[in-house]
Amino acid sequence: MVLRAWERYLLYLLVALAVFLPLIFQFEVWPNIPTREVLGVYDTVDGLTPGDTMVIAVDFDPSSMPELDPMLRALLRHAFAKNLYVIGVNLFGPAGTGIGLKAFNDVGDELGKADGTDYVFLGFKPNLIAAVRALNENISEIFTVDAEGRVTSQLPIIQRTPKLKGNIKYLVDLAAGETVRPWIAYGSTPGGYPMGAGCTAVSFADYFSFYQSGQINGLMGGLKAAAEYEELVKHKAVASAGMNSQSIVHALLVLFIIAANITFLATRRRRGGVA
Amino acid sequence: MNFLRRQLPVVIAFCIGIFMFALYYIPSAPAKAADETLNIWILIISAFAMLLGIDSILGHHIRQVRKRAAGYGYSWALILAFVAMTLAWIPWWRQAQVTGAYYPWGGLENPSGVFSWLFYNMMVPMQATMFAILAFYIASAAYRSFRARTPEATVLLIAAAIVMLGRVPLGSSIGDYVHFGSTWVARHIGLTEAAAFVATTGFMSNFRLETITSWLLNIPNAAGFRGIVLGVGLGIIATSVRIIFGVEKTYMGGGD
Predict the structure, then answer these.
(1) pTM summary value
(2) Contact B165 A251 (CB under 8 A)
(3) Which 3 state secondary structure label does DSSP give A248?
(4) pLDDT in tens, A41-57
(5) Contact A243 B140 (CB under 8 A)
(6) Interface probe with A: pick from B35, B38, B39, most Cβ of A within 10 Å
(7) Which residues numbered 188-207 in A keep a CB inside 8 Å of some CB on B?
(8) CB-CB: which of A62, A63, A130 is closest to B42?
């Protein structure tokens, strides 16, 4: 079906209004109840002992940032509040390093954590599978310097955690692409540490089978999951602000589908069964 | 020459492939050390692949500019952006720490540098904008294409609508409204036992959008996706065996 120009403009205008108006005029009508999948990640982080080390894989780039960056910041806030040591790494694409570094430094500064001692962001390395395998055995060998150019073997956090295998208590992969599966197969399973994941809303269905099989113990899908995590850590931020927009846009899409099908069925009936 | 181009790569692929495969089954320290060393080699070779990517994309756009092909202005934008970010990234001289003078060069390790500014204020918003535009295309595509033409398409359409609503807070609230409404209606038409059943057993929670969404993801979706994953796994094994034994040679390029 080809849309006429005015129909296309009307659709775009309605979507734009559905996105912008709830962001400008904030209201709280629909509670965002945390789901079992998000609680899986939250409860694991919450159950770690202060002084434990966890890894957050920032496997996304700016295109997925609106959904995954709020998730990353909420997760960091939770980990730092629990006094956990956090190691960040990006094995998806070079652009993810800047996002990860900024989030780690922003939240770390805000909660008074020391870069290099309480947390570190290692940066990017190509070839996910080889990098994951190497991280399990020796962090400093593959990341000789971190994202800020410091020699990793001299950083207190890396001296405490020279390799992932046997040292870390949890890993969360925030994935924009196909990174969860290699992390499970070459990282978490041989390394013997539990793993959770976060992904964009469109990838949620893809990763659900890993959650169902128990290979990941929690799964955060899209902005809604980020908002749920913000609720759990009691620090509402951009994801929570976006929930009203997302609710209205989703409802609008369903209305579009219903309207289009009514038109389609009416046309088919008028033409005697052929649309 | 033919040997170097056609036979030697196959021999190398065969030897390395078999060796890497065997290492998995040899539980000894030398085997582990060899595995780790080869793993580092893979990482180094992968870094060269990025150089090939840069060469490929720049080469393509330089050709576009030379030919003055349609939209060659965009090619200029890419080339200039590439050159600007590369020049900004290079630490041309060491920062004078004592003077505290402004230092524009270097990568993300210098938060006040030109590269960081270009990255956070141009590249990040532009990439995020490209993705954000998808919302408009999806709205248009949903309106144009989601049609109940066949029973299968109707099932897909209904499932999509349920998941779309079940994955936002509005969907959970619809469940609350339905639960409240059904209890209220049952009570007001005199079905007090039914109202009590609905209110106390949570029977209606089975029809909540988020419950149905969870079922759709847990059962039909997980079953289908697991099949796909198994198929991909078997495909990877088959392709690996074909490459190791020299049946599959397309990775050498050239198509011959």
Answers:
(1) 0.88
(2) yes
(3) helix
(4) 999 999 999 999 999 99
(5) no
(6) B39
(7) 201, 204-206
(8) A130
Q: How far is A49 from chain B (nearest CA, A)?
A: 31
Nearest to A126 among B46, B148, B218 (CB): B46
CB distance B131–A205 less than 8 Å?
no
Mean pLDDT, to the nearest integer, of A13-36?
89
Tell me the C-alpha distance between B120 and A98, whole Å.
Answer: 8
pLDDT in tens, A182-191: 999 999 999 9
The predicted model gives A77-87 an average pLDDT of: 97
3-class state of residue A225 by DSSP:
helix
Say yes or no: A182 contacts chain B, CB-CB below 8 A. no
If you average pLDDT over residues A149-157, what whole number do you get? 95
In chain B, which residue's Cα lies nearest the Cα of A103? B120
Please tell me the distance from the alpha carbon of residue A57 to that of residue A186, in angstroms, as a whole number: 14
Domains of chain A (ranges; CATH) run 5-25+243-270 (no CATH), 36-235 (3.40.50)
C-alpha span between A101 and A121 (Å, rounded): 6
Q: How far apart are the first and last CA of chain B?
A: 15
CA neighbours closer than 13 Å in the CB half-sphere of residue A148:
17
Which residues in chain B touch residue A260, judged by CB atoms under 8 angstroms apart?
Answer: 142-144, 146-147
Which residue from B minimizes the CA distance to A136? B36
With residue A122 as reference, give the H or E element that holds it.
strand A119-124
Contact list, A256 vs chain B (CB under 8 Å): 139, 142-143
Predicted-complex ipTM score:
0.85
User: Tens of pLDDT along A83-102?
Assistant: 999 999 999 988 899 999 99
Q: Tokens for A102? A: 């900024």
Could you give the percent of chain B with pLDDT greater than 90?
A: 38
In angstroms, the separation between the Cα of residue B158 and the nearest Cα of chain A is: 10
CA distance A251 to chain B (A): 7
pLDDT tens for residues A171-214? Answer: 999 999 889 999 999 999 999 999 999 999 888 888 988 998 89
pLDDT of residue B148: 86
Q: Give a three-class secondary structure readout of A50-77.
A: CCCEEEEEEECCHHHHHHHHHHHHHHHH
In angstroms, what separates the C-alpha of A84 from chain B's closest C-alpha?
A: 24
